[in-house]
Amino acid sequence: MRTVELLLRDRVEHLGRCGDVVKVAPGFARNYLLPRCLAIPATAENKQMLARRTERLLAEEAAQIAEFTARAEALSKVSLKTVEKCDDRGHLYGSVNAARVAELLREAGYPCDEKHVRLAKALKLVGEHAVEVHLHAEVSAEIGLRIEGENGMTEPVVETSLVPEPEPEPSDEEGEEGDASDEASEA
Asked: What is the pLDDT of residue 176?
């Protein structure tokens, strides 16, 4: 398979960061990276130019990481609350997804985009939930989210009928009585 060697000018998700030399398919380079000015051909001249630029960008990125770390510390202290419609067992009629969590964060004064909120799946039960907010490739924060029902429900009802109750173990006394009745029936 043919590949093209390029120098990345910016961070490209799942590929690399500024200054990295990467080998990609020619079509990916021609149709995506080069038209968007995300990469340049990996010539000796371009490598020297990008080395100078990379030093400056690394310093800027370190400052960004420090800023995002401070925001992550502030976010980790945040606890959000929302009231949603639910049934009598605590199941929401809808769900709370990443867009709704981002909206709650914006209402609380923390600018956030829904693509930064990481949920394995939409939340469909009332109660306490932990939500990860991914601020940077190296920085994330976990916030608390409390979902309450409009009917005042704060915890889901656990179905106990689905779990079979353990059968009581027969005691030794019952076994002795059973032996005595067996002897009486033999006589």
From this structure: 52
**Which amino acid would we find at residue 140?**
S
> Rounded distance, CA 186 to CA 61, Å?
91
Share above pLDDT 70 across residues of the chain, in percent, rounded to a whole number: 85
CATH number, position 135: 3.10.430.100
Per-chain mean pLDDT for the chain: 85
Residue 62 · residue 138 · CB < 8 Å: no
Cβ atoms of 5 and 40 within 8 Å: the answer is: no
The pLDDT of 119-137, averaged and rounded, is 91
Backbone angles phi, psi at 83, to 5 degrees: -115, 125
How many separate domains does the chain show?
A: 2
Domain membership of residue 186 (yes or no) is no
137 and 86 in a single domain? The answer is: yes
Full domain range(s) for residue 33: 4-66
- The pTM score is 0.62
CATH assignment at residue 13 = 3.40.5.10
Measured CA distances, 132 to 26, 32, 92, 113 (Å): 36, 30, 21, 13
